[in-house]
Amino acid sequence: MKIDAIKLDGGKAGSIDLDDEIFDLEPRADILHRVVRWQRNKAQAGTHKVKTRSETSYSTKKIYRQKGTGGARHGDRNAPIFRKGGIYKGPTPRSHAHDLPKKFRKLGLKHALSAKAKAGELIVLEAAESDGKTGALAKQVKSLGWKRALIIDGATVNEGFARAAANIEGLDVLPSMGANVYDILKRDTLVLTKAGVEALEARLK
Known about the structure:
Blueprint: E1 2-6, E2 12-17, H1 20-23, H2 29-43, H3 102-118, E3 122-125, H4 134-144, E4 149-152, H5 159-165, E5 171-174, H6 181-186, E6 189-193, H7 194-204
């Protein structure tokens, strides 16, 4: 598929051919859902923790004699049945990550790129370069109508552009290796530089 490229000032910069096997698939919600779920679970901290009965700070003395009280049999006050006692089978630190085959992750990224292309939310930029001035870049972004945009560059991001974009709300910049399904779907507009397109096609073929 062919798409027109633009410059940061809004001018035309020719056109570019996009690989149909990457940008022209029929997006599948089930594939995208599985990859996003894998990403979010992997990122979850898993630092939740409760105290068991061996960790709460009550005396371990038996609270009353075993027989003859007319009440239930108890040991110490740390038992889960008592207020402020230990928690039974509560959460402990663990990883929430689960496996997902590399081929499936690659397929998910292809479907995310295709979803943006199908929705008309994919823009190809000639180059993401700037002198590092936030004000100038903010005016260009506003004139282009980008409100929540993700810009994916080639192997590296232009240092001046990254510095200028850092303080612009709703604008994020990633190198091609950082491209992922969750960040792509989260933004209203996906902007790929020509170098970014080449890097992604090389990565996904």
